[in-house]
């Protein structure tokens, strides 16, 4: 049972990494098409990445709380 919590935390980390990667891919494409919007796109991307990281941290903590020493 102990391994399932670790697997859950790993899945949360993988999901967050994929989400941020997709977000960055879209932002880089947007910046390449409209360089004048660089600042707004970058700011929006960083805010969204921070929200994804917050959800991922919350999910990892929930998974790791299931481990009782």
Kindly describe this structure:
It is built from 2 helices and no strands. It is mainly α. It has one domain: F1F0 ATP synthase subunit C (F1FO ATP Synthase). The radius of gyration is 16 Å and the shape is elongated. 1% of the residues are buried.
Sheet/helix structural class: mainly alpha
Q: Kindly state the number of beta strands.
A: 0
CATH class: Mainly Alpha
Strand content: under 5%
Number of helices: 2
Profile the largest sheet.
Answer: none
Which whole number gives the mean pLDDT? 88
Radius of gyration computed on alpha carbons: 16 Å
Order of helices and strands: HH
Query: What coarse outline follows from CA principal-axis ratios?
Result: elongated
Question: For the record, what is the CATH homologous superfamily label?
Answer: F1F0 ATP synthase subunit C
As for the CATH topology, it is F1FO ATP Synthase
**How many separate domains?**
1
The end-to-end distance, rounded to whole angstroms, is: 13 Å
- Uncertain ranges: none
Architecture per CATH nomenclature, i.e. the level-2 architecture: Up-down Bundle
Helix content: over 70%
């Amino acid at each position: 049972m102990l391994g399932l919590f670790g697997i859950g935390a790993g899945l949360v980390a993988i999901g967050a990494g994929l989400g941020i990667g997709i977000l960055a891919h879209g932002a880089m494409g947007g910046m390449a098409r409209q360089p004048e919007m660089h600042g707004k796109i970058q700011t929006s991307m960083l805010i969204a990445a921070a929200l994804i990281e917050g959800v991922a941290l919350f999910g990892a903590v929930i998974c790791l709380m299931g481990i009782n020493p």
